[in-house]
């Protein structure tokens, strides 16, 4: 399999966490691409020009992180959508995914408007990030050692991406439960291998 990635995308990280946790890393070739440069082969694979994009062994091209996660869940265990307490798991994942979407919207919005952070849309996105992390603090996902699933994938991805991209504040200052949860996940190989970087 082939996966278009970049080194900062939280959506790429969601997929890479699944690849690592399912033991598929030796079956997936990673190709780093700058989606803003619109390389021809990449745009042919995904006309939306977004990462991640997975090409399966039989040549099917799947774009969008959640669709790729669905495919990976079909081909390898463990499932990241557990039958046991699925609704609770998805309910925890939802605000984390919302916070991630908001954070990336700000980063992209800054490319077109210097005042994006403080305009109506940017301000709402900041609120979404803060509220998403606060909800995670109140309703923690399971530790990765207990069970890797979409809730802890989404939580660690949101938290690490926001801390990585928005360095002007201590996002965990008033979130002791989430801070302690993240500390407990340190050293897990899948997390260390997929940390965002520039």
TrEMBL record:
Keywords: Transferase. The keyword Transferase applies. The keyword Transferase applies. It comes from the Bacteria. Residues 1-80 form the GST N-terminal domain. Gene3D superfamilies: 1.20.1050.10, Glutaredoxin. GO terms for molecular function: transferase activity. InterPro entries: Glutathione-S-Trfase_C_sf (IPR036282), Glutathione_S-Trfase_N (IPR004045), GST_Omega/HSP26 (IPR050983), Thioredoxin-like_sf (IPR036249). One of its GO terms (cellular component) is cytoplasm. PANTHER family: GLUTATHIONE S-TRANSFERASE OMEGA (PTHR43968:SF6), PTHR43968. This is Glutathione S-transferase. It comes from Roseivivax isoporae LMG 25204.
